[in-house]
Each structure stands twice: as C-alpha cells, then as structure tokens.
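Deviations from the work plan: none for this task. Representative record:
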Amino acid sequence: MDILDTLNIAGSGLSAQRLRLQTIASNMANARTTRTEDGTPYQRRVPIFETLEIDPFGSDVERNIAQVEVSSVETIEDYVEVYDPAHPDADADGFVSFPDINILEEMVDMMTTSRTYESNLKVVDLTREMAMKAIELGR
Amino acid sequence: MSDFLFDRLYSGLNNVLDIRSQQHALSATNLANAETPGYKARFIPFDQVLENAVMSTDSMAMNRSESAHFVGTGAVSNPEVEEIEAPPWVENGNSVFAEREMARLTSNSMVYGALTRGISTRLSILRYAASDGKS
C-alpha cells in the first residue's frame, strides 16, 4: 500500500461520481422523451456502485482499503400515464407513457453527487500535501 | 540500523507515520464509497493502537526509571481495522458520514504533518551533532 493507492481510490470515487452525474444529466434531459430507438419511452438510468478490493490477501488495513466502481448502469422500467389525446404517442384511450422521472429527485441526487465529488477532490489535495511533507523529511 | 543514532523515538515516529498514512487510505476508501449501498465506514481505532503499544512486551517497549512516568510505547505494526455499523434510519445501509470522515481526514493529515516535523527535528539534531555543532 502506498500513496498512489490512495490517489487511485480518490480517483475511482471521482470517476464514479462523474459517471453518476452523466446519468443524472441524461435522466433530466430525457424526462419527457416518449420515443427511443426501440419505440418505447425513455427509461430512468441508475448507476450501481460496488466496492472494489485492492489487496484481498494483505494485512488487516490492506484488506480494508477499496476503490469504488460503477459495476453497471441499470434502467428502471416504470412509466407515468398522462391523459393527453392530442399527443402523437397517445394510445387508443388517449394516455401517453412518460418516463417516471422526478426532476426534484434528480436535482437532490445532483447535489449529493457534487458534494461527494468535492470530498474526493479534498482527499487528492490532502494526499498530495502529505506526500510533499514526506518528501521534505529531513530538509 | 544503529540504536545509537536512530533510537526508539525515531522508529516510533516512523511507525506512527505509517499507521497515519494507512488511516488516510481508509478515509479515502470511505469517501470514495460514500454512496455504495451496504458499505460500512472503516477506521483504525487509535486508542486501541495506543493500548496495544502500552501493553506490548516486545523488545521495542521502553523502560521506566520513575513509576510516575508514562509507560513507553512499543512498536505497533499491523493495527486492526474497525467498521462502523449503519444506524437503522439509513435506507441503503451505508455508514459513511461525510462530515465525520472529512474531520477524521483533516485531523489525521494534521497529525501526519506534526509527525514529519518531529522526524525532521530529530534528524536536524543528529545533523547538528554530526557537524560539530556548526549548523
């Protein structure tokens, strides 16, 4: 375990949060999308986070340090039926299926994403500071 | 390594420096996994580390000349890691609290800075002695 491991951990956190922000952006942009390539309405995307152990056979500490990875991005098949007979995609009864996306929920997700991203950046900063202190030992 | 030049204080400082950088990696892990469902925050309990050091009877332990003195700290190389259970109101079972982790991270790196300062001072004392007192 060395200082690079710590930077990699913070880096994994940064990229996971960036990917999450991308899914949020995609969800918000497509909140009213009724036509995708296969003809169904857009489905809300959710990134799945998992821990990724670095050294499963090391000491107690080494076994406990882990990166984070986005193992998959899953889609949630859930629609909201809205009565709008004038809509081109309305069914025989006049209902249109919209993606089940709550903009407020996405906004809250976006804020936690940016906070977590910031805290990982802070780790990078502090790691660099500590490395510099270690380099300057004995000066 | 000569006991004469690099004494117990020096190796003790190095030892704690090591443990502090391990704690730093654990805090980095916790913050990276702050949104991972079911993840439990991990940390090195430093009071436990101190207790082990005081109780340890290995050759690194220091002797006391006066019973009122603190017991010398022995070397602790492989500290145990503890996990924090998530409180029941957390839906996804994740026990990382960003504020607590940031506080731990900041205080840990402050202690790290103090330790490097201590080692540097120790080395500069040696250098001063080695150069016949002509700093």
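Residues 53 and 73 of chain B are 5 Å apart (CA to CA).
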